[in-house]
Amino acid sequence: MEAHSSEIFVIGLTVFFLACIIGYYVVWSVTPALHSPLMGVTNAISSVIIVGAILAAGPLGHDTSKIFGIIGVFLASINIFGGFIVTYRMLSMFKKKLKKSKEKY
Amino acid sequence: MTNNLVAVLYLVSALLFIFALRGLSHPESSRLGNIFGISGMIIAVVTTLMFKSVISYVEIGAAILIGGAIGTFIALKIEMTALPQLVAAFHSLVGIAAVFVAAAAFYDPVSFNIGNIGSIGKSSLIEMSIGTFIGAITFSGSVLAFGKLQGTVSGKPIVFKFQHSINAIIFLIIIILIVYFVINQSPTIFWTIVLVSILLGFLVVIPIGGADMPVVVSMLNSYSGWAACGIGFTLSNNLLIITGALVGASGAILSYIMSKGMNRSIISVVLGGFGGEQSNISANDNSDKIIKQGNAEDAAYILKNADSVIIIPGYGMAVAQAQHALREMGDILKKNEIKVRYAIHPVAGRMPGHMNVLLAEANVPYEEVLELDEINHDFPMTEVSFVIGANDVTNPAAKTDESSPIYGMPILDAEKSQTVLFVKRSMATGYSGVDNELFYRDNTTMLFGDAKKMCEDIVKSLN
């Protein structure tokens, strides 16, 4: 049980609040034109819970936990690939134009 | 791999995620940002696969491949106009995945280092149930939001008596269930929490109308982050906590920006009911007022003789898929030395930044696309405002009529330009149900018809 002492919780809480503050400033600096890609990318990175799913799916055997883990890996993968690719598509639209407008000058 | 090395690699991954968001501060740095994000994810996944306890690579590999293929297929096929639905659907996946991870941790606490079955630490149980609760709400809320955006479920807000009291009671029940769960660690109670939370997710989104969807989609984005955070606390995993907090903060800020764009508190949006029949009563009856109607040729003539034009696109443009035709029209005007710019209201479209993406898709240079604050003072110096598929965001009543439901909402000052061209399918009101007095002004010409068809016709006339 030492792995989950109150100490670890407090460390987690520290990390949590610091990350919230970083998130606050970083997100306000995002240009409004890119708010849709922002949603795409946050959607993709929130699927980092795949880490937890992999841990559950990792051991051999076929118990309940493993099945849940594999389902988790599957669902999170849809999101990771989908999220990053759709963000890439959006961003390349903004990029494409940049080149074009440069060519004009 | 030692625990320290794992912690360092997770930290690198978290930092890369921060840079991924940071990159979005400018279109030019944004693509690099996306690459940072992908790298961070690869590092996180590979590090986890290196764990000694992780050995069933076949199953995991298959799950990643199949899931990845599905995600890739959907992301490549999706129309940009359908982005809001897609994002809602993706949020629901994060939510349900969080539930599954929490369940896995509950059924096999040893693998996650949080105790043994039946004797999981209390704090872990609390974190686990909070993660589950938020995950389940995100899931069902997003599914319903998806339905409303896709049109499979009516976008009209569904309001019934005691709605908020019922939600409050359900929330209370969930808290009681969590307390019970922490005490007796029963699987039955775990799944009851899941089911009741799913029910609450539906009930929370049901009263929210179609046009409030930008706020809802952002809010669910935020929830999916907090769900990841909850799981992060359960697993004592800083990477999950950091990422969850970033996403949570991002969604919360977007919700704030969106509700400010409608001059409404987040709370009033969440309570819902806006845009229902009850707000359909207009303060003054405009049915006998005269409107000036024009056709594409009139519009082309007016546009051709202007020095500067500001185009105001709205959701209607997205529905009609008119962005390409619109850009073509803009190109011709630019060739005639007319200054063309686009004005984007914060809540135009069905998700934050939706209009910008659609215009980008149609190859409109982003320098020409301006936000409300950047362009609003230019309207008095502008000959023509070309409003296409937007309505409420130009309604002067928001500034003058205190009884109007949209009073106080920041609007684009199209009324201050010399001429207003209004492309609309009919005289129907916008989502707020409020009549737009701009329609009846002397300097307004209404162009009735499909937005795309109208743009194409104007292009023809211009040539």
Q: What would you note in describing this structure?
A:
The complex is a heterodimer of chains A (105) and B (463). By secondary structure, chain A is an all-alpha fold. Helices cover 80% and strands 0% of the residues of chain A. Chain A is built from four helices and no strands. In chain A, helix 2 (35-46) runs antiparallel to helix 4 (64-104) and helix 3 (50-57) runs antiparallel to helix 4. The longest helix of chain A has 41 residues, at 64-104. Chain A is flat, with a radius of gyration of 20 Å. The model of chain A has no long low-confidence stretch (mean pLDDT 86). Chain B has 17 helices and nine strands. With 463 residues, chain B is an alpha/beta fold. Chain B is elongated, with a radius of gyration of 25 Å. Helix content of chain B is 57%, strand content 8%. Chains A and B meet through helix 1, helix 2, helix 3 and helix 4 of A and helix 1, helix 2, helix 3, helix 4 and helix 8 of B.
Q: Choose one word for the global shape of chain A.
A: flat
Series of secondary-structure elements of chain A, N-terminal to C-terminal? HHHH
* Helicity level of chain B: 55-70%
Counting DSSP E segments of at least 2 residues, the number of strands of chain A comes to: 0
Instruction: Please summarize the sheet with the most strands of chain B.
Output: 7 strands, parallel
SS class of chain B: alpha/beta
Gross geometry of chain B? elongated
List the chains of the largest interface with their residue counts: A-B, 88 and 120 residues
The radius of gyration over CA of chain A amounts to 20 Å
Q: How far apart are the first and last residues' alpha carbons of chain A, in Å? A: 66 Å
Determine the mean pLDDT of chain A.
86
Estimated radius of gyration of chain B = 25 Å
pLDDT < 50 stretches of chain A:
none
What structural category arises from helix and sheet content of chain A?
mainly alpha
The major sheet of chain A is characterized as: none
The number of helical segments of chain B is 17
